[in-house]
Task: structure prediction
Amino acid sequence: MTVNPKIEEAGFRPASRIGAVGVSKILQIGAKAAAMKREGLPIIILGAGEPDFDTPDNVKDAAKAAIDAGDTKYTALDGTPALKKAVVEKFRRENGVDYEIDEVTVATGAKQILFNAFMASLDHGDQVIIPTPYWTSYSDIVEICGGVSVLVSCDAEAGFRLQAEQLEQAITPKTRWVLLNSPSNPSGAAYALQDYRPLLDVLLRHPHVWLMVDDMYEHIVYDDFKFVTPVALEPALKQRTLTINGVSKAYAMTGWRIGYAGGPKALIKAMAVIQSQATSCPSSISQAAALEALNGPQELLKERRESFQKRRDFVVSRLNEIDGLSCRTPKGAFYTFASCAGVLGKKTPKGNTINTDADFTDYLLQEAHVAVVPGSAFGLSPFFRISYATSEAELMEALDRISRACAELR
Result:
Protein backbone atom coordinates (compact mmCIF):
# COMPACT_ATOMS: atom_id res chain seq x y z
CA MET A 1 0.00 0.00 0.00
CA THR A 2 1.31 3.45 -0.91
CA VAL A 3 1.24 6.10 1.80
CA ASN A 4 0.35 9.62 0.75
CA PRO A 5 3.64 11.51 1.35
CA LYS A 6 1.81 14.74 2.16
CA ILE A 7 -0.14 13.04 4.94
CA GLU A 8 3.00 11.36 6.28
CA GLU A 9 4.89 14.63 6.12
CA ALA A 10 2.17 16.55 7.87
CA GLY A 11 2.16 14.26 10.90
CA PHE A 12 -0.15 14.83 13.85
CA ARG A 13 -1.67 18.28 14.34
CA PRO A 14 -2.91 18.84 17.91
CA ALA A 15 -6.10 20.82 18.46
CA SER A 16 -5.51 24.48 19.21
CA ARG A 17 -7.39 24.12 22.50
CA ILE A 18 -4.48 22.17 23.98
CA GLY A 19 -1.73 24.14 22.33
CA ALA A 20 -0.70 25.89 25.55
CA VAL A 21 -1.51 22.97 27.85
CA GLY A 22 1.12 20.43 28.82
CA VAL A 23 1.45 17.52 31.20
CA SER A 24 1.46 18.69 34.81
CA LYS A 25 4.87 19.85 36.07
CA ILE A 26 4.20 17.80 39.19
CA LEU A 27 3.83 14.65 37.10
CA GLN A 28 6.88 15.53 35.03
CA ILE A 29 9.06 15.87 38.14
CA GLY A 30 7.59 12.68 39.59
CA ALA A 31 8.29 10.75 36.41
CA LYS A 32 11.88 12.05 36.24
CA ALA A 33 12.48 11.17 39.89
CA ALA A 34 10.96 7.73 39.45
CA ALA A 35 13.23 7.09 36.44
CA MET A 36 16.29 8.09 38.49
CA LYS A 37 15.12 5.77 41.26
CA ARG A 38 14.82 2.87 38.81
CA GLU A 39 18.42 3.56 37.81
CA GLY A 40 19.44 2.83 41.38
CA LEU A 41 19.75 6.34 42.79
CA PRO A 42 18.45 6.80 46.37
CA ILE A 43 15.71 9.25 45.40
CA ILE A 44 13.16 10.44 47.96
CA ILE A 45 10.03 11.72 46.24
CA LEU A 46 8.13 14.41 48.15
CA GLY A 47 5.93 15.47 45.26
CA ALA A 48 3.00 13.08 45.45
CA GLY A 49 -0.39 14.60 46.24
CA GLU A 50 -1.82 11.52 47.88
CA PRO A 51 -1.87 10.05 51.39
CA ASP A 52 0.59 7.27 52.13
CA PHE A 53 -2.08 5.48 54.17
CA ASP A 54 -4.00 2.55 52.73
CA THR A 55 -7.71 2.67 51.94
CA PRO A 56 -9.59 1.67 55.12
CA ASP A 57 -10.45 -2.03 55.40
CA ASN A 58 -14.20 -1.45 55.67
CA VAL A 59 -14.11 0.44 52.38
CA LYS A 60 -12.15 -2.32 50.64
CA ASP A 61 -14.54 -4.91 52.06
CA ALA A 62 -17.51 -2.99 50.66
CA ALA A 63 -15.91 -3.02 47.21
CA LYS A 64 -15.28 -6.77 47.42
CA ALA A 65 -18.87 -7.34 48.51
CA ALA A 66 -20.11 -5.32 45.54
CA ILE A 67 -18.06 -7.47 43.18
CA ASP A 68 -19.35 -10.68 44.78
CA ALA A 69 -22.92 -9.39 44.54
CA GLY A 70 -22.53 -8.75 40.82
CA ASP A 71 -22.76 -4.97 41.08
CA THR A 72 -20.51 -4.67 38.05
CA LYS A 73 -22.87 -3.09 35.52
CA TYR A 74 -23.49 0.46 34.41
CA THR A 75 -25.04 2.64 37.09
CA ALA A 76 -27.10 5.80 36.85
CA LEU A 77 -25.22 8.36 34.76
CA ASP A 78 -23.91 10.64 37.50
CA GLY A 79 -24.08 8.47 40.60
CA THR A 80 -26.14 5.70 42.15
CA PRO A 81 -29.17 6.84 44.15
CA ALA A 82 -27.59 5.31 47.26
CA LEU A 83 -24.32 7.24 46.85
CA LYS A 84 -26.11 10.47 46.01
CA LYS A 85 -28.20 10.06 49.16
CA ALA A 86 -24.99 9.53 51.17
CA VAL A 87 -23.53 12.72 49.66
CA VAL A 88 -26.70 14.63 50.57
CA GLU A 89 -26.42 13.34 54.14
CA LYS A 90 -22.72 14.18 54.26
CA PHE A 91 -23.36 17.79 53.26
CA ARG A 92 -26.15 18.07 55.84
CA ARG A 93 -24.27 16.32 58.65
CA GLU A 94 -20.83 17.86 58.24
CA ASN A 95 -21.47 21.17 56.52
CA GLY A 96 -24.99 22.21 57.49
CA VAL A 97 -26.02 22.52 53.85
CA ASP A 98 -29.20 20.97 52.41
CA TYR A 99 -29.16 19.60 48.87
CA GLU A 100 -31.74 17.53 47.04
CA ILE A 101 -30.74 14.37 45.15
CA ASP A 102 -30.97 16.18 41.81
CA GLU A 103 -28.60 18.87 43.12
CA VAL A 104 -25.80 16.32 43.52
CA THR A 105 -23.45 14.80 40.96
CA VAL A 106 -20.83 12.04 41.19
CA ALA A 107 -17.96 11.68 38.71
CA THR A 108 -14.67 9.94 38.08
CA GLY A 109 -12.72 12.11 40.48
CA ALA A 110 -13.05 15.77 41.44
CA LYS A 111 -11.03 16.66 38.35
CA GLN A 112 -13.89 15.43 36.17
CA ILE A 113 -16.31 17.49 38.26
CA LEU A 114 -14.23 20.56 37.43
CA PHE A 115 -14.06 19.64 33.77
CA ASN A 116 -17.79 18.95 33.53
CA ALA A 117 -18.67 22.24 35.24
CA PHE A 118 -16.40 24.39 33.09
CA MET A 119 -17.30 22.61 29.87
CA ALA A 120 -20.98 23.03 30.67
CA SER A 121 -20.76 26.73 31.58
CA LEU A 122 -17.90 28.47 29.78
CA ASP A 123 -18.23 30.16 26.42
CA HIS A 124 -15.17 31.32 24.53
CA GLY A 125 -13.50 34.17 26.41
CA ASP A 126 -15.39 33.74 29.68
CA GLN A 127 -13.12 34.45 32.63
CA VAL A 128 -12.37 32.39 35.73
CA ILE A 129 -10.65 34.07 38.67
CA ILE A 130 -8.10 31.75 40.28
CA PRO A 131 -5.98 32.79 43.29
CA THR A 132 -2.35 31.70 43.14
CA PRO A 133 -0.58 29.65 44.29
CA TYR A 134 -3.01 27.17 42.80
CA TRP A 135 -3.37 23.57 41.67
CA THR A 136 -2.26 23.89 38.05
CA SER A 137 -5.03 21.70 36.64
CA TYR A 138 -7.49 24.50 37.40
CA SER A 139 -6.16 26.84 34.73
CA ASP A 140 -5.43 24.07 32.24
CA ILE A 141 -9.01 22.81 32.41
CA VAL A 142 -10.33 26.36 32.04
CA GLU A 143 -8.20 26.88 28.92
CA ILE A 144 -9.26 23.55 27.37
CA CYS A 145 -12.89 24.50 27.92
CA GLY A 146 -12.43 27.80 26.08
CA GLY A 147 -12.22 30.07 29.09
CA VAL A 148 -9.57 32.52 30.25
CA SER A 149 -7.81 32.07 33.58
CA VAL A 150 -7.39 35.29 35.55
CA LEU A 151 -4.62 34.50 38.00
CA VAL A 152 -4.50 36.66 41.12
CA SER A 153 -1.29 36.47 43.15
CA CYS A 154 -1.79 35.91 46.89
CA ASP A 155 1.46 36.39 48.77
CA ALA A 156 2.72 34.85 51.98
CA GLU A 157 1.97 37.99 54.01
CA ALA A 158 -1.73 37.47 53.23
CA GLY A 159 -1.45 33.82 54.20
CA PHE A 160 -1.69 32.88 50.51
CA ARG A 161 -5.38 33.83 50.67
CA LEU A 162 -7.35 35.97 48.24
CA GLN A 163 -8.34 39.35 49.66
CA ALA A 164 -11.66 41.10 49.01
CA GLU A 165 -9.96 44.06 47.30
CA GLN A 166 -8.17 41.73 44.91
CA LEU A 167 -11.39 39.92 44.05
CA GLU A 168 -13.23 43.20 43.45
CA GLN A 169 -10.50 44.42 41.10
CA ALA A 170 -10.36 41.14 39.17
CA ILE A 171 -14.08 40.97 38.37
CA THR A 172 -15.12 42.12 34.90
CA PRO A 173 -18.32 41.77 32.86
CA LYS A 174 -16.75 38.59 31.41
CA THR A 175 -16.14 36.96 34.78
CA ARG A 176 -18.05 33.69 34.97
CA TRP A 177 -16.54 32.01 38.01
CA VAL A 178 -14.20 32.52 40.94
CA LEU A 179 -12.55 29.31 42.14
CA LEU A 180 -11.48 28.91 45.78
CA ASN A 181 -9.65 25.94 47.30
CA SER A 182 -9.56 25.52 51.08
CA PRO A 183 -7.45 23.99 52.51
CA SER A 184 -5.22 24.67 49.57
CA ASN A 185 -2.97 22.62 47.38
CA PRO A 186 -0.12 23.69 47.34
CA SER A 187 0.08 26.10 50.26
CA GLY A 188 -2.06 24.48 52.95
CA ALA A 189 -3.74 27.88 53.42
CA ALA A 190 -7.33 27.72 54.60
CA TYR A 191 -10.20 30.20 54.75
CA ALA A 192 -11.90 30.56 58.11
CA LEU A 193 -15.28 32.24 58.52
CA GLN A 194 -13.71 35.68 58.90
CA ASP A 195 -11.61 35.14 55.75
CA TYR A 196 -14.55 34.09 53.60
CA ARG A 197 -16.98 36.77 54.75
CA PRO A 198 -15.48 39.77 52.87
CA LEU A 199 -15.15 37.66 49.69
CA LEU A 200 -18.78 36.55 49.88
CA ASP A 201 -19.87 40.16 50.35
CA VAL A 202 -18.07 41.03 47.11
CA LEU A 203 -19.84 38.20 45.30
CA LEU A 204 -23.21 39.34 46.60
CA ARG A 205 -22.57 42.66 44.82
CA HIS A 206 -21.82 40.87 41.52
CA PRO A 207 -24.71 38.52 40.75
CA HIS A 208 -23.27 37.44 37.37
CA VAL A 209 -20.28 35.79 39.07
CA TRP A 210 -20.58 32.17 40.20
CA LEU A 211 -18.51 30.54 42.94
CA MET A 212 -16.74 27.19 42.68
CA VAL A 213 -15.21 25.83 45.88
CA ASP A 214 -12.86 22.85 46.09
CA ASP A 215 -13.19 21.37 49.59
CA MET A 216 -11.18 18.21 48.88
CA TYR A 217 -8.93 18.63 51.94
CA GLU A 218 -11.81 19.42 54.30
CA HIS A 219 -10.93 16.70 56.82
CA ILE A 220 -7.21 17.47 56.90
CA VAL A 221 -7.05 20.60 59.04
CA TYR A 222 -4.93 21.29 62.11
CA ASP A 223 -4.74 22.92 65.50
CA ASP A 224 -7.95 24.78 66.32
CA PHE A 225 -8.90 25.59 62.72
CA LYS A 226 -12.63 25.23 62.03
CA PHE A 227 -13.45 24.21 58.48
CA VAL A 228 -16.42 25.94 56.86
CA THR A 229 -17.78 25.91 53.32
CA PRO A 230 -19.12 29.16 51.80
CA VAL A 231 -22.73 28.07 51.18
CA ALA A 232 -23.10 27.36 54.89
CA LEU A 233 -22.08 30.96 55.59
CA GLU A 234 -24.10 32.63 52.86
CA PRO A 235 -27.18 30.68 51.72
CA ALA A 236 -28.00 33.51 49.28
CA LEU A 237 -25.12 32.26 47.13
CA LYS A 238 -26.32 28.65 47.02
CA GLN A 239 -27.98 29.03 43.62
CA ARG A 240 -24.70 30.10 42.02
CA THR A 241 -22.22 27.96 43.93
CA LEU A 242 -20.77 24.55 43.09
CA THR A 243 -19.29 22.83 46.16
CA ILE A 244 -16.79 20.13 45.17
CA ASN A 245 -15.44 17.33 47.35
CA GLY A 246 -14.49 13.67 47.12
CA VAL A 247 -13.09 10.64 48.90
CA SER A 248 -9.54 10.73 47.54
CA LYS A 249 -7.65 12.56 50.27
CA ALA A 250 -9.61 11.98 53.47
CA TYR A 251 -10.10 8.26 52.92
CA ALA A 252 -6.87 7.56 50.99
CA MET A 253 -8.83 6.57 47.88
CA THR A 254 -6.97 8.44 45.14
CA GLY A 255 -6.98 5.48 42.77
CA TRP A 256 -10.68 4.77 43.19
CA ARG A 257 -11.47 8.01 41.32
CA ILE A 258 -14.64 9.30 42.95
CA GLY A 259 -15.49 12.98 43.29
CA TYR A 260 -18.82 14.60 44.02
CA ALA A 261 -20.42 18.01 44.17
CA GLY A 262 -23.55 19.87 45.17
CA GLY A 263 -24.96 22.74 43.15
CA PRO A 264 -27.96 24.27 41.37
CA LYS A 265 -30.16 21.77 39.50
CA ALA A 266 -29.69 23.44 36.13
CA LEU A 267 -25.91 23.29 36.42
CA ILE A 268 -25.93 19.68 37.65
CA LYS A 269 -28.17 18.71 34.72
CA ALA A 270 -25.84 20.43 32.23
CA MET A 271 -22.83 18.70 33.78
CA ALA A 272 -24.58 15.35 33.31
CA VAL A 273 -24.82 16.06 29.58
CA ILE A 274 -21.04 16.49 29.42
CA GLN A 275 -20.43 13.36 31.47
CA SER A 276 -22.81 11.34 29.30
CA GLN A 277 -20.57 11.97 26.29
CA ALA A 278 -17.27 11.51 28.16
CA THR A 279 -17.03 8.69 30.66
CA SER A 280 -20.70 7.98 31.36
CA CYS A 281 -21.07 6.63 34.91
CA PRO A 282 -18.20 6.31 37.40
CA SER A 283 -17.04 2.79 38.31
CA SER A 284 -19.80 0.83 40.03
CA ILE A 285 -17.28 -0.76 42.40
CA SER A 286 -15.70 2.56 43.30
CA GLN A 287 -19.13 4.00 44.02
CA ALA A 288 -19.89 1.12 46.41
CA ALA A 289 -16.57 1.82 48.15
CA ALA A 290 -17.30 5.57 48.38
CA LEU A 291 -20.73 4.82 49.84
CA GLU A 292 -19.10 2.92 52.69
CA ALA A 293 -16.46 5.64 53.14
CA LEU A 294 -19.14 8.30 53.66
CA ASN A 295 -21.54 6.18 55.72
CA GLY A 296 -19.09 4.02 57.66
CA PRO A 297 -16.95 4.71 60.76
CA GLN A 298 -15.18 8.08 60.69
CA GLU A 299 -12.78 7.68 63.64
CA LEU A 300 -9.88 6.93 61.31
CA LEU A 301 -10.00 10.48 59.95
CA LYS A 302 -8.96 11.91 63.31
CA GLU A 303 -6.12 9.41 63.75
CA ARG A 304 -4.70 10.14 60.31
CA ARG A 305 -5.11 13.89 60.74
CA GLU A 306 -3.07 13.71 63.95
CA SER A 307 -0.36 11.78 62.11
CA PHE A 308 -0.25 14.39 59.35
CA GLN A 309 -0.07 17.20 61.91
CA LYS A 310 2.92 15.58 63.60
CA ARG A 311 4.70 15.38 60.25
CA ARG A 312 3.71 18.96 59.40
CA ASP A 313 5.21 20.25 62.63
CA PHE A 314 8.44 18.36 61.99
CA VAL A 315 8.85 19.55 58.40
CA VAL A 316 8.03 23.20 59.17
CA SER A 317 10.44 23.21 62.11
CA ARG A 318 13.28 21.70 60.10
CA LEU A 319 12.76 23.99 57.10
CA ASN A 320 12.88 27.07 59.31
CA GLU A 321 16.22 25.92 60.73
CA ILE A 322 17.83 25.92 57.28
CA ASP A 323 19.66 29.09 56.28
CA GLY A 324 17.99 30.67 53.24
CA LEU A 325 14.63 28.93 53.65
CA SER A 326 11.51 29.97 55.53
CA CYS A 327 8.13 28.31 55.88
CA ARG A 328 4.74 29.38 57.18
CA THR A 329 2.75 26.82 59.17
CA PRO A 330 -0.06 25.53 56.94
CA LYS A 331 -3.57 25.20 58.37
CA GLY A 332 -4.47 22.12 56.37
CA ALA A 333 -3.80 19.61 53.56
CA PHE A 334 -0.45 17.77 53.65
CA TYR A 335 1.91 20.22 51.99
CA THR A 336 4.36 22.89 53.03
CA PHE A 337 4.99 25.83 50.70
CA ALA A 338 8.34 27.25 51.75
CA SER A 339 10.20 30.27 50.46
CA CYS A 340 13.64 29.71 48.97
CA ALA A 341 14.27 33.41 48.35
CA GLY A 342 17.28 33.29 50.64
CA VAL A 343 19.23 30.90 48.41
CA LEU A 344 18.67 32.73 45.13
CA GLY A 345 21.86 34.11 43.67
CA LYS A 346 24.01 31.53 45.41
CA LYS A 347 26.22 29.03 43.59
CA THR A 348 26.22 25.26 43.79
CA PRO A 349 29.44 23.30 44.41
CA LYS A 350 29.61 22.82 40.62
CA GLY A 351 29.50 26.58 40.06
CA ASN A 352 25.92 26.86 38.81
CA THR A 353 23.90 29.85 40.01
CA ILE A 354 20.51 29.31 41.66
CA ASN A 355 18.46 31.96 39.86
CA THR A 356 14.95 30.57 40.31
CA ASP A 357 12.97 28.19 42.48
CA ALA A 358 13.07 25.73 39.57
CA ASP A 359 16.88 25.90 39.66
CA PHE A 360 16.76 25.18 43.38
CA THR A 361 14.43 22.19 43.11
CA ASP A 362 16.50 20.80 40.23
CA TYR A 363 19.61 21.15 42.39
CA LEU A 364 17.91 19.25 45.21
CA LEU A 365 16.93 16.47 42.82
CA GLN A 366 20.29 16.14 41.13
CA GLU A 367 22.57 16.60 44.13
CA ALA A 368 20.48 15.73 47.22
CA HIS A 369 18.27 13.20 45.44
CA VAL A 370 15.13 14.77 46.89
CA ALA A 371 12.22 15.51 44.54
CA VAL A 372 10.08 18.55 45.42
CA VAL A 373 8.04 20.89 43.19
CA PRO A 374 8.94 24.53 42.45
CA GLY A 375 6.45 27.24 43.31
CA SER A 376 6.52 28.41 39.68
CA ALA A 377 4.54 25.27 38.82
CA PHE A 378 1.77 26.65 41.05
CA GLY A 379 1.95 30.23 39.83
CA LEU A 380 3.99 31.77 42.65
CA SER A 381 7.76 32.09 43.08
CA PRO A 382 10.21 31.74 44.73
CA PHE A 383 8.74 28.85 46.73
CA PHE A 384 8.75 25.08 46.67
CA ARG A 385 6.20 22.49 47.75
CA ILE A 386 6.90 19.47 49.91
CA SER A 387 4.29 16.77 50.33
CA TYR A 388 4.72 15.29 53.79
CA ALA A 389 2.34 12.43 53.04
CA THR A 390 5.16 9.95 53.44
CA SER A 391 6.91 8.12 56.27
CA GLU A 392 8.58 9.99 59.12
CA ALA A 393 11.83 8.16 58.35
CA GLU A 394 11.83 9.42 54.75
CA LEU A 395 10.98 12.94 55.88
CA MET A 396 13.86 12.94 58.37
CA GLU A 397 16.32 11.75 55.74
CA ALA A 398 14.97 14.18 53.12
CA LEU A 399 15.27 17.20 55.43
CA ASP A 400 18.80 16.16 56.39
CA ARG A 401 19.73 16.06 52.71
CA ILE A 402 18.07 19.42 51.97
CA SER A 403 19.90 20.96 54.92
CA ARG A 404 23.26 19.65 53.74
CA ALA A 405 22.57 20.75 50.15
CA CYS A 406 21.72 24.30 51.28
CA ALA A 407 24.83 24.45 53.49
CA GLU A 408 26.97 23.73 50.41
CA LEU A 409 25.64 26.77 48.53
CA ARG A 410 27.92 29.79 48.45
Residues 299-321 form the longest helix (23 residues).
